[in-house]
Amino acid sequence: MISLILSEENPTLPNDIKLVFNDVKVFYMKYYPGHGIRKDEQERMYKELSLIKNEVEKGDVIVYARSYGVFYRDGMNRLKKFFSKPVVISTEAIIDRLRELGAKKVYVVTPYNQRRHDYEIKWIQGFGFQVVGSIALGRTGGPAIASTPHELVINAVKIAQESSADAIYVACTILSTLPILDKLSGKLPVVTAASATVDKVKEIINLRNNV
Length: 211
Prior knowledge:
four-stranded parallel β-sheet; 2 domains; alpha/beta; Rossmann fold
């Protein structure tokens, strides 16, 4: 079983992930503005996680499919130490996948408004990637992101495919991308927040099955 931890603003991934995995139990966490970096934000986050920890750890793999509290390595490492089972963190999976591809130059597509989009660019640059271009789809909040038409994402990626990037990164696990991965493919590899997460889960399951 996979234990999937999400923001309460994410209605998309529980449906999309079932295209790949059958046995998924979903745990929703309260949405708070901010990035979960401050001490008080971390304390609140772990207080909430403590309430669901026992149930979450019944899963073979734990998936933390949100960025809150895990934008940076310290936060990622703390979360992995908190649980006794293997943890896949979407933010970490994205960075790892881009590095596996050998990408140095990245084209960024996000569903976000400009302010949140700029933060995403700053975040990915902080891990050493050069952003050669980007598109913001201008949507604010979970419901607006979740209702983004697939066609908008496909068209944005088509533009990105013509860039000088080594890879294309499509942000946000609330944005539905798993059903359209084949339509996003082109000369450049495409890493979406959801696809990177799923790939990492498959990796862990395959390793366990091969032991």
